[in-house]
Specification:
By secondary structure, the chain is α+β, with helices and mostly antiparallel strands. The protein contains four helices and four strands; from the N terminus they run αββααββα. α1 crosses α4.
Length: about 140
């Protein structure tokens, strides 16, 4: 993910969060799961800084939304799966970012409800002109 693309996702996420009146932390990772950009909105929960970063990284590592990954882990009874890879997040708010079928990176949002975090992430991806396909059955 290029710096310009990361900043574009941050800007779109901030706009979506403000429109929803939610203060969040926003993390953007490249296709290797490395942090490219981060923004903590005023009055967002401090504990959500780490969660946003782990959401973005989790989405990248498996090329899947974190809530879909969590559902798959529960269905397959993959106990302690979230403790692998330095800690994964298995609830909504982390989304992989694709462009023309290629994984560019991921975005993680944390600070609102799980549904708000997911909505902000998807709005940012859509408004930036990227896409986010669903999870597969493979891990």
């Amino acid at each position: 993910m290029l710096c310009e693309q990361s900043q574009q996702l941050l800007t779109m996420a901030i706009t979506a969060a403000r429109n929803s009146d939610v203060n969040v932390n926003i993390a953007v990772c490249d296709a290797g799961g490395n942090l490219c950009a981060f923004q903590r909105m005023d009055n967002s929960p401090l504990g959500s800084v780490d969660i946003a970063q782990k959401k973005a990284r989790s989405a990248v590592l498996f090329g899947a939304p974190t809530d879909a990954l969590g559902q798959l882990v529960r269905e397959q009874q993959l106990d302690s799966f979230e403790q692998t890879n330095g800690g994964l997040i298995l609830f909504a708010g982390g989304e992989p970012v694709f462009h023309q079928g290629k994984l560019l990176g991921g975005i993680g949002i944390s600070g609102g409800t799980a549904a708000e975090d997911k909505m902000i992430a998807l709005a940012a991806i859509d408004q930036a002109g990227f896409n986010c396909p669903g999870v597969t059955d493979e891990i």
